[in-house]
Design goal:
Helices cover 29% and strands 28% of the residues. The protein has 142 residues and is α+β, with helices and mostly antiparallel strands. It binds nickel (II) ion.
Length: 142
Amino acid sequence: MSQGTVTRRYRFCAAHRLHSDRLTQEENQAAFGKCNNLNGHGHNYVVLVTVKSSGIEEAQDLERLDRTVNETVVRRFDHQDLNCDPEFAERTTTGENLVKLIWDLLESKLMAGRLEKVGVIETRDNYFEYAGSSQARGGARG
Ligand code: NI
């Protein structure tokens, strides 16, 4: 029996600056271009959270999911500077790192195996996606 998925959309606005303390000023500029500018810049992030649908009590289930995502992700990042988040103390605030962090934050809050995929739309042309590491997903998918 195949199980469907459901995707919910969330939003937050946040500032960031692409910068790595491990790189020199020149290397940062070369790697990140204007995204390395000192004063940072903002994005209207869209977060797409895909979970396996429960099939039963779907509405209640999605309400619970909304609450979890809002408390865990939206409230944490909305109108914040991502570079100030402790999780980004050692990591650059790229979309790749952000989508992984959101995955980790949600995975620890949701029922095991429920989370299917997280997507982050950063700009009109940039979309990042993460579906967990292959080890963490076990052998179930073959
Ligand atoms: Ni940016």
